[in-house]
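request received
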Amino acid sequence: MTVKAQKAYMVSVPPRSSGAEIHVAIQAIHGRQGEIRLMAGSLEFVTPREICGLRALLDHAAAHADRVILDCPVSRDVHAYLARVDFYDALPPNVELSRRPPILQRRDRRRSLLELVRLQTSDDVEHLMDRLWEVAKAQFGPGAVAKACTTAVGAATENVVDHAESPIGALVAAQRYRTTGLELAVVDLGHGIPMTLARNPDHRGLTDLDALELSLKDGVSSAREPGRGAGLTELVMAAGRAGQSTLRLGSGRAHLTLSWENGHYERQPSVPAYVIRGTWISLRLEN
Amino acid sequence: MVRYKVAKWNAFLATRERGRRVREDIERELARVDAGDTLVLDFSGVDGITVSFGDESVAKLVLARTAGDFTDRGFVIEGTTEDVHETLETVLARRKLAAVNLRPSGELEILGVQGWLPDTLKAALNLRSFRASELAERLGLTPQAANNRLKLLVASGAVAKERVIPEGGGKEFSYKAAIPA
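response:
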């Protein structure tokens, strides 16, 4: 992805976004700009993470430019899928699409799809949990694992409502795939975990990676008040309980992948070459 | 006993802001409960709660009782799913607090910190209405130790306390089990 200082900023999204390009673009777009073009015409495949990430980039660009032009995917399937997951809904007024979203005959997909939603209030978080419960039940049955996953995602998103002050709220989407399982993403452009945690004097001076790892421990919070700091712990516990799963967390200059497979737990920390604005969470619960 | 249906808010409950609003609503309901009577926090129909919600609603309700709020009336938890049960256990234990849960079988259990609380609850339920000295005698404790235990038991909602004026003057409390044995 490139951001060029021409007449308009231009952001090129590759056929299969790794996410890195989106993070770089979000950092590059700041201040006030005339026109921004998001070139997503070559997109071939999107998962919930890319859906949330692209919409975060679009909203961020719209907040910094007079005019944003989104070059929609040429692939009819991808364009229609983005329409189906409500990607094109409630766009900022200064966003123009290169092509109209198709008019769809919608089938009831509530057991396999959670369309893109924006969370800004307690009601939003609870409504998300109600909807996610339908998808989780279809994946795991109406037992404790489905409830734990639903509650844990609620806990992860309520962090955004309670602490992050994200200008775009929290964007959430989920899709249950027949072959691989349930994928879910939560993206915000708020303060991010390292900066939020540093509000607590006990946790200042940490590297972003240390802060990210520490945030997963029960009781670690931006506040010293007892009873706080459980949201991400709940998410990690639910992911572990679900069996075969992968949890990816990114914030600041830190990325952490936690995976559980056949009773084995693996943790892969890394320091990306770019800054991740806010907090990006994706969860895959395999069949 | 007066019943408060937590599910009137939603089947899944999250965020501190929602927890605070629910707690304030419960406190309004508690204020209407007669002294010596009990409020049942009925969680039936609630599928899941987050730790933040549980901390802000139930744990802080118990915490307020340690400071003396509504201690002349009791409260008990009922109708929890496995997930809600586990979360309430966690939020209370993290703050070293306890509450009493009424199982579908009618059996009572302590949620949160355990220690000597189950034995003390059992003794209080047997005595039903008592003074601290009577509980001390029943459990073979010093009056000070009995008072310490009663503080947590009153906070848990299982026992209500009322100030009485003893014959010789001074300050004393009488205690009454606020939940069925």
